[in-house]
Sequence to fold (250 residues):
Amino acid sequence: MPFEQPLTAAPTSATPFRTSRPLRTGDVAPDNRLRFDGIARYLQDIASDNADAAGFGATDPVWILRRTVIDVHTPAAFPDRLHLSRWYSAYSTRWSNMRVQLTSDKGARIETEGFWINLNSDTGMPTRISDSTLELLATTTDESRLKWKAWLDQAAPAADGLPDAAFPLRSTDLDPLGHVNNAAYLHAVEEHVTARPDLLAAPHRLVIEYRAPITAGEHLALRRRDDDESSTMWFVVNGESRATARMARL
Fold:
């Protein structure tokens, strides 16, 4: 199953982009665990830092996430210092898989991968990645025929089968495109995963896929289904599932 496939290893023939920073109290839960939304912010920050350092922030400035995979092998906990490595694990002419590994001074290990789509800043549609950025992507992978395949394609269950939980949006949840920010989706995930300490206690994988943006003024509801091995959440607006998240043991 796609959900269970392993992430690619770090390249041996090239050096990933690296940075480090302290684990901050604003990103941790009451038990000092680095929250999922905190991980999302670190991933966004290193993406921006990487774009600035490599120069493709000027040639390919607008990217959106279609999927994020977060594998928590050993969680990070405050206080600690995080070390982040970012490299390109596959690409095509309009999108790329970006791997980020988070380790720490105290032994944390979190492996992530994001499916990023390059957008035309005028039309908002997927567009061809510039030649210079394609050359950069090719420095850490030989996989140049990346195709999109959903990992979470299960439709949201009927509302009468599972009750919806309202999740009011705030102005601070929006990004420069007017969409709900990636980290804000994981605020909602955090609201529910604390009910599954059995999953959090073991190495676990969280996958979130975005189908359509959620914008200001829309009424977001969360629909959740649990079983012994996993927890799945649908982000529902007017009966339409805009995103799906699933957490399970690794």
